[in-house]
Every structure is written in C-alpha cells, then in structure tokens.
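agent> Task received from the user: take the single chain below, predict its 3D structure, and emit structure tokens. No templates, no multimer pairing.
agent> Plan: (1) validate residues, (2) run structure prediction, (3) serialize to tokens, (4) report one or two observations.
agent> Step 1 OK, no nonstandard residues flagged.
tool_call: predict_structure(input=
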Amino acid sequence: MSMYHPRLQSFGALLVVDADCRRIQATSTNLTRLIDFERPENGQLMLACVLGKRLSQRVRRELQGQQRLPGPLVFMRSKHSHVCFQIHAYRAGEQVIVEIEPLNPRSKRRLLGTVNERLMHLVEATHQQELLDCLVNAIQQLTGHDRVTVCHFDSDWHGLMVAEALGKRLPSLLGQRFPASDFPVALRKSYQHYPVRLIEDVNAPPETLIPAVPGSSLNGSFLRAPAPERQRYLNRLGVRGSFSLAIQGDTGLWGLVFCHSPAPHSVEPPVRDAVRTLVQMATQRMLLLRARQEARYLQRVQDSLVLSARARSEPKSPQQLLHEQAAIWMKLFRAHGVVLWVNGGAYQAGVTPSPEAMSQFVLRLERAHVHSGPWCTREIAKETLTASLAMPEQCGALAVPLPLSSTQRAWLIFFRPEQVETLYWAMQPTISPKPDVILAPSVAWSEEVVGKSEAWLRVERLAAVDLGEDLTLAISAYEISSLNMHLEHERKALAEANQRLEQLAHFDPLTKVWNRYRIEEAINAELVAAKRYAAAFALLLFDVDNFKQINDAHGHSVGDDVLVALARLVETSLRGCDHLGRWGGEEFIVLATHSEVDAAIGLAERLRSLVAELRIEGLDQTITVSIGVAVWQPGDSCKTLISRADNAMYRAKHGGRNRVEVALEPATAL
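)
tool_result: status=success, residues=670
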C-alpha cells in the first residue's frame, strides 16, 4: 500500500490517533519543537503523553458518537506554564485528527471590545458598499494584514474586487477582476466545507507526518500546507501571508475575503474566530439590506401601477396607458423602449424594433415560452429565439405574458441598448488542459465587452410580473367597457366578460386563491371590526423556501406546480372563516379571524408541517415554508400589520427556514 505524505504548515502540530482516541499513530515533524513531553520507554506513544491524562479523557468522552469536538479545548504544559495550547479534534474515516496550536498572551477583553465596536458599525451600515468597507477595515485592524479585499463572484464565477483596506506594501486590487480559472470548482467546493483558510508563510518548508500512515487524508485539516500551484499563484501576487474566508449568500458562495501580507503573517485562533464572526454578521446584514432595497424598488413599481377604483370606473385604452406610464416604466426598468402587444397590435414608446420584427418576436414567444413567468435575454443577437430578427438598436429584452383569457395572451416587453463595458482584469484568464487547476496568472489587462445589455436583475423580473398582472386587469377593464358601449345587445358576451373581470380582479390567475387586492380588502374589513369590537385576528405571511433554486433547477413550470399545489393544500386546511391570498411571487397571506396568538401559532405550525409533507411530480426535494405571524394590536393598520408579519417571516428565513416566528408588538418594533 502506498504511503500518503501530507504537507503541513508549521504554526501548529498534528496528531493522527486511532479510532478509540488512545494510541497516537503519527505526529507532525514539529511536535517535539512545539510541545515538550516525555516519550514512554516502550515507544508506544499515547494521547495522554502529549495532552495529559485528564484532557485526553475529555477529548475521548466528547468525541464519542460525534464527528468533531463541539469547540476548541485549551491546555497548558507544566514546564511551560506561560504558554497555552488550543486543540481541535475531529474524525477522518477510522482515525481521529488532533490539531494543536499555541495561544500567545493577548488581552481578550480588548479583543472583545474591538469586535463589539466593529459589530456596531456593521449594524449601522445603510448600504452594501458602506458595509463592505467597514468590514475590510475592521478585519485589517484585527489581523494587521497589509491588504484586505472582498471578492464577489458573478454568474460566470469571475471575481470582482468590490472593497479593500490597503496598507503601503502591496498594490491595490480594488475594481479589478480575476478570471474564473483562478477559482476552480474544487476550490469553491472546499470553501463550502472549510470556510476559513490560513497560510502563515507560503514559502515555509512544510512539515510531514512521521511515520507515514496509509489512508490518512488531511484535506479537512486547518494546518494543511498550500498546494504547489497555490504557492506559485500567491508568489506571483507578491503574497507570503494569506488568510481567507468564505462569504455565503442565500443561494451559495457569494464571494471571499482575502487578507494578504508580503511577509509571513500569523493570525491567532481568537482573532480568526473574531474575524469569522464579523464576516457572518456582515453577510446577514448584507442580505437584509438587499432585501430592503428590493422591497423599496418593488414598492416604487407598485406605486406606478395603473389599477385603481378610478381606472375600473373610467378604464383607459392600452395606448393611453402606455402613453401616460411609459416614461416612468422605462426609468424603473432601466430600459430605452417599451412595447405593449395587445390583440395583434403593438403600442410602442421609446426606441423599439420595427412592427415586422415585433410581430415575428411575439409569434416566437407564443410558441416557445408557454409558462407564465417572464422571458429575458441580454444578448438578442446570440439568443436562439431572437438571433435572426432585425433588431439593430436592441441588445436586451424582458417579456412578460399577460393572460387576458385561457386562450389569449398580451405581452409587455422592455428593451435595453448595448452596454459597452470595460473590464479591468488583474490576471488574464488562461485555458487549462486539466480541469480545476489554478494556473499561474499573467500580466494585467483590460477587456471591452460588447454585444450585451445590462443584466436583468431578479427583482426587476419580479416587478415586471407584478406590473403585468395589473396591466392584465386594466386591459380587461377597458375591453369590458368597450363591450358595454358597442355591444350592448350581446348580453351573453357582456356577462361572460364581466365574470372574467371579476375573476381577474379578485383571484390570482395561477393559484385561483384571492389576489393581493382582495386579501387587502378583507384585512381592512377585519381591522374595522377589530377596532369596533376588539375582536382579535392574526396574519400569517409565508413564502416558499429556496423557491428561486426550484425555478432555476427545474424550470418555471415546476415552480408554478409548487405554488398551485401549495395554495390548494393550505386553502383546504383552513377554517371556513379564514382566508388565503397570494401576496405576490411565492408569498401568501392567511387571514385568521377570531384568533389569539396561541391559536395563530398553532395554525402556523400545522400549516408548516402539512407543507413539509407535500410532494410535487418531477421534484424530489421537500417543500418548506417560513411563516411570520402577526396578531392585531390596537393601533395597527393594514400596512403595519403586514410589515410586522413580513419582518417576522424574514427572521424565520434568517433563522434557518422552515420555521415560524411571531412578530414583535408595534411599540417594540419601532
């Protein structure tokens, strides 16, 4: 059997122990330099010889049935009473790996005070760039690295340096891009499992295990030395000391924090833990800021919607609607043209394709895009559906179907121009013959990207769907008005059209439950009754966890099936006096009348459990929901009640999903 010779860094020592956590099978070559201990005369080295009998028993006890110790342990050698050591222990196959690091004296109170102060700054940040700038400055203060940068990955896994704290010994990387070949799949996956990586000196001679142990894999060891290709890469960057941490977003790896020094640089375990806490707090704050920003944008789009009581009593034609709202819509969606295609005709504003090209475009959309979600591209000239169409002034398109009936759809389509962008690359990407191999970077370069528009953001696609639903109602209202004026004698047709308008005005076309407008009316009515009779009621606001991943992995048709099945399950599980409405996207609201807080929580937990048992054809994962519960309190309005439920739902999201959280009372929330 071939022997495995792992390469280890020398700032800590490593022990390979048997499964019973008693006999030491191998040690790193620096163990005796790091820790003074007496070797037994019989040559049989036991864990108690190194750690002491009491500590070795504790390690053995806490590892029973566990994969790793719940936290680090600290011990002190009697001959070196001024030096403390910290150990981590975990199981690797049939062996136990024990990592030992020295702990140098440091004022924990001062470190705690610094961390608390920086956490307050993170909490006070009001936008993402301020948050990231605060984060890199805090990390640089704690670790002393010369350069601390935040690298954010785009959809192609290219890295952009978006924030930086810089000393005087390394050049700035802010605003530069690194190619995806610098972050191969194997490296990104390792950060998913091991989010913290420290290289004290990339050029230091590595330690090894003695004796070599067959089958010992130390891929998960914090002490593992950098691979030769990683050494070459950091040397080309002029870096000897490196400390990196993963930033996990809500859909995977969002980016990395890189701490670089041109000289060897150590980071003590308490400092590493403090930095990881800062990164985790900053990540949660960043997700919250993004959610708030998206909520504000959606509200701006909703404020531009055309449906109102007046719009229903005095409906306007599609041409009038577009003429009045086009400028606002184009600004909101960063578009230079908009087309409303209704009944085979195009109403256009701004820079749009020719009528012939539009007709062909809509015809292809009708054939290829059969589900209810939006369709978009940022490369019209390369997209299969549009490549052969004559659209010389258009580069991006976002199309939303408007279901006027079961057999007829209108379309709302936004167009964007080409966005020529100059990208500054720190390292020129190189094609590697071997996958997942980090290549040595070459000289910096710049690239001009042409033929693409700005990307359509997820929140923009959601907002376009909301706008499309409102336009569907407005267009239907206008059609019915026209029928009332010109087809009075065809009463049957008029009655069917009015019934269709009533259905559209009060029910969600996909799930067939109440829509946003109808559930809002019911909430307002319940508020009146509550204020008059003090009759308590509750709102349950919930949405489907990881719904975007379902759409991305299985398509919007499966996503639609999830929403329809979920709505049917919840609606059939409610009392006759309770109501269900679709609030928007994957969000739903349950209006629970005559419900105190205990009853509302019980209902929420029952619905959460029922949903977890839901099975969808073509989807092998479990469907879960995060539920925010808000019980009416005196002084509540519809807006404050929904806001409290929304905040509670986001706490359920950030608390791990598939949870129920109860909203704070209004006075506390403020």
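agent> Step 4: summary for the user.
The chain has four domains: 13-103, 108-202+239-293, 304-418+453-496, 510-669.
agent> Done.
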